Amino acid sequence: MNNQKILIYDFDILYQILNELKKEINFEKININTKDFSSLEKVDDDSLIITKKEISNIKNQLIISKLPIRFFKLIEQLNLSFLKQKFNEQSEFIVKNYKINLNSREMIFNSIKLKLTEKETNIIIFLSKSNKPVNIQQLQSEVWGYHSELETHTVETHIYRLRKKIHTSFGDEKFIISEKDGYKIL
After folding, report:
1. Buried b / exposed e across 156-180, counting CB within 10 Å, b at 16+?
2. Residues 92/101, Cβ–Cβ less than 8 Å
3. How many CA atoms lie less than 13 Å away from 181 in the CB half-sphere?
4. Contact status, residue 128 vs residue 95, Cβ threshold 8 Å
5. pLDDT per residue as tens digits for the range 30-64
6. Is the pLDDT of residue 150 over 60?
7. H-type alpha helices, the chain
């Protein structure tokens, strides 16, 4: 565990046990009691909260409701929680004011969600990573895997439909713009 931070909420016995085992485990432990509850709302996204019962509106919780628990089982649950957290962090991509969830293939803005196809997601990610306009041949090659000089309207059709979906859901007509050299996300 790469020096992760664990907040142990209203669970003194667990804090004492983990504190005694500090040489065997590699994470920072912070004990929080009921009086410090308001500080939970300011928790970093990379911290994990261990609690006996679920706390509403708080992310990254590991609920341990059944005791006793074997130490190795506890460490396994901590590791799994940190892995899930890392996976979720890597699955979100920010483009302009939008959040793209790569797992669910959704584009999100102000709690409005737009389902995307795999190709649409790949187009958005590829265009957003480019510093200059991307031409049709580059998109065919990188997103579709085509290496042909044949004339095809696949890219234009996908871009047209994607723009229409984004405009319909978010009212954004300028998410993907056309320039003489290709397509671009500002």
Report:
1. eebbeebbebbeeebeeeebbeeee
2. yes
3. 8
4. yes
5. 888 877 766 665 666 668 888 988 888 777 888 99
6. no
7. 12-20, 71-90, 118-129, 136-139, 154-170
